[in-house]
Amino acid sequence: MKYTEHYRLNLWDAADRVLREDFNADNQKVDAAIAACRARDPQLLKSIIVSNDTSQLDIDVSDIDFGHWHTVLLRLEILGDGEMRLRSNQSYSEFFNQFSVFESTSDCLSKFPARTAGQRHEIYFFPLCDKRRLITALTLSDTVLLGCNYQLSYENLITLTIFPREPKQTLGAESKISLYGLHL
Question: What is the DSSP string of 119-147?
Answer without folding.
Answer: --EEEEE--TT-TTSEEEEEEESSS-EEE
